[in-house]
Write a structure and sequence with these properties.
single chain; 492 residues; mainly alpha; 23 helices
Length: 492
Amino acid sequence: MNKLQCLCSTCVYRPGMGASLIKWENMMKGAISRSRFIVTILSCSIILIPGGGVTYGFTSIDPYLYSYLVSKSPEHTAHKSSLSWMYSALLTGQAIAMITGGFLERKFSTRSITLCGVALFNINLLMMYFSCSAVFSLVLSYLLAGFTLGLIYVTSLVVGLSWTEKHYHGIFSGVLSLGYGLSSVFISPLQTLYVNPNNFEPTKNLVDGELIFTQPSVLNRVPYMFILFSIFSAIIQIPLGFLLVKNPEIPKPDTIVKCDYVTEMFRKPRFYILFLIFALNKLPLAYIGSYAKMYGQTFISNDLLLSVVMGLCGVFNALGRPFWGHLHDRYGVKFPLFALCISTGVSILVSYLSKFLKAEAVCASLFTISVWSSYFCCTGNYGIMPAAVIQFFGEEDFGIKYGIIYLSQAAGAVLSSIYTSFIPFWMPLVLSIVFTCVVSGLLSLMLRTTETIDDQARALLNNDSSDSLVISKEFEMRREGAIELKAVSNSD
């Protein structure tokens, strides 16, 4: 029985294991040098900065991009949901690419996949100079940008997590995507200073009453911004792409067992709960990213101030990822995820109510704090979810599994676009977003965290037909150990 307890202690995931001893040796997987570990983790994070600039940094120029579309439209109008559809296209392409990248990883090296994604990503940015004048072509460009970004994103996660022990996967999921969130800190202000250096204020469109920029000096700079950004992106990404190599020190099993570890995920109820929570949690992030600045413009007149506020969101975007990921490592999935959902809903509600205070300075202060808080909570999903996927479904073919879960982000973004199309008023839109936060929080309480993918190894002790059991490759050695232990017990 002691041998069985020893086997299970190596297999069962326990939140908080090793959390009190923060040592490099505990974090690194395999006999690797500390310097190589640090360089790889930093490379995986920094290479995502341009991608974050597209996803989050461009939210600060959404009003300028929307104004440019209006200026090119014959009717001199464009529905504000166009911005949300671009964001939906970006996430759809990203989710598809993450699954595709997971399959490509079986045949090609992570370095090859990354460099291919980098080349296509920057070529597409250059082409956006031509496509930004029409909604359809811009949506298509965002779809392609999302696909190429997804290839880079999934390989950086796969590479980074292959170098870290699983009891630190939560915090390192946040660290690896930290560059993705931090990008808007300096990209957003630079974009605003380039497009609108004179801090012009938007005016009401005479056709539909929406706030737009009509100054030619502002509108003429919009397409050239994509060219400058593609140059900046290529300088960062191309050298780092050569450093994204999976951990060569991971021990491999001597034998390979035929397994169906991806489809097994669909048989678990917690897969559908995680998928739905991730989808619903995308709605508040899509709302804040696409419309926070536009809503702020209805009662805050300083456009430069709003750009700075949205730019500094990147700090909280970045800090929220490792913070919530660390909570996952300490306490598991359920309660950190519940706290994240409820905190997000409260923050978004406060950001809406800040408009109704009398003094503009007080309104701006409360709006700023609530928007930053929303970002801090929303982006915690990207620290919790990768670690939850590994905890529940195993590390083998993580790119495919997380890519499937990540499809929920596209579903959530599409749902957000539908929301904004059919709910044109701010109050019902905000209340519906808050309601989804409450629903996702309640769903998180339904997660069973007492059983993990490791329980399949334990099930072998009660199942002689082990070939029929679906297990992941990473537990093949534990499977053999379990069968050996059972044979010893029977002989005794």
